[in-house]
Design brief:
Layout (H helix, E strand, L loop, with lengths): L8 H12 L2 E3 L5 E3 L7 H9 L6 E7 L6 H15 L7 E7 L10 H7 L1 H4 L22 H5 L5 H7 L2 E5 H15 L3 H10 L6 E3 L2 H10 L3 E4 L3
Parallel strand pairs: 3-4, 3-7, 4-5, 5-6
Antiparallel strand pairs: 1-2
């Protein structure tokens, strides 16, 4: 599989426009609305954001893997608020996984099948080689284990809300399919089927950043 998915800026932008906005290319080469392109995703995501609760609220804008810091900082937010008298029930951290951070939302099966470690330049915490599994869902080694930092699953159980950009899922899965000779829609469906339970797809990461702030979440950039 090709690992340099975006060698052409023009190709990326064309994929973004065609693959993610319900548009198709007509015989004249012009973009036109695709029939039946409406989706309930926005309605579902807006309902999901109603779960934001508590006095202290923050949104981590995770555009890059950044060695797991979007997860580390959500853990630090809960730990230090606990230490200063605020229980988990009074806290909400929303982590928006977008752009190159989207593989954190997906299960190990997809990491191995599509070589996410190579594609997104994410290393195994022990070997420093490209990761073949999600190293941050349930960390079993590396600094997370050594310093007692909770992974995504445990933080989700404590109330952290993780969402993933459907715009980026569509673009990256389309490019991955093209590089492997696969059907783009089949790959996208495979990626969506492999999202961890409780992780909400949202129309786009920037859409989610805006919704979180409308819910009173302070903004923190976590992309590195």
């Amino acid at each position: 599989m090709k690992t340099d998915l975006f060698s052409s800026r023009r190709e990326f932008m064309q994929t973004l426009a065609i693959g993610t906005t319900g548009l198709v290319v007509g015989s004249s080469g012009e973009l036109a609305a695709a029939p039946g392109s409406s989706s309930p995703l926005g309605v579902q995501a807006d309902a999901w954001f109603k779960k934001v609760k508590g006095k202290h609220r923050i949104i981590y804008d995770a555009t890059e893997p950044h060695d797991g810091f979007p997860v580390i900082w959500s853990w630090a937010f809960y730990k230090t608020n606990n230490d200063t008298g605020s229980p988990d029930t009074d806290l909400t951290a929303v982590v928006v996984l977008r752009h190159n951070a989207i593989p954190f939302a997906m299960e190990d099966r997809l990491w191995e099948k599509y070589k996410f470690g190579e594609m997104f330049k994410i290393k195994d915490l022990s070997t420093d080689a490209p990761a073949l599994r999600n190293p941050y869902w349930i960390p079993t080694d590396g600094p997370f284990k050594a310093f007692g930092i909770d992974g995504m699953k445990r933080m989700q159980e404590r109330g952290v809300m993780f969402c993933v950009c459907d715009l980026a899922l569509t673009v990256y899965s389309t490019m991955a399919a093209k590089g492997s000779g696969l059907n783009a829609e089949d790959v996208r469906k495979d990626w969506l089927s492999g999202l961890y339970p409780g992780i909400q797809p949202v129309p786009s990461g920037v859409w989610a950043v805006n919704r979180a702030q409308e819910k009173g979440c302070s903004y923190c950039y976590a992309g590195g």
